[in-house]
Write the structure tokens for this entry.
Amino acid sequence: MNEVPAMVSTKDLSYIEDMLNWNFTTIKKINSYISLVEDGEIKEMLSYISEKFKTHYNSLINCLSIGGSDE
């Protein structure tokens, strides 16, 4: 599904909130691990993964902020 419905149910909103929390927590954990790792290749991979989770997080925020609008 590529479109946000005009109305989001309470259950849907709760699930989206959970997804936001999962992504945010994962980003925080990965970033704390990056500061502990000394291997450059592993740091690079963790940074890449962190960026993917940030992209997912921002997509969810964007979905909520434009959902239901005609802009």
User: Anything to note?
Assistant: DSSP finds two helices and no strands in the chain.
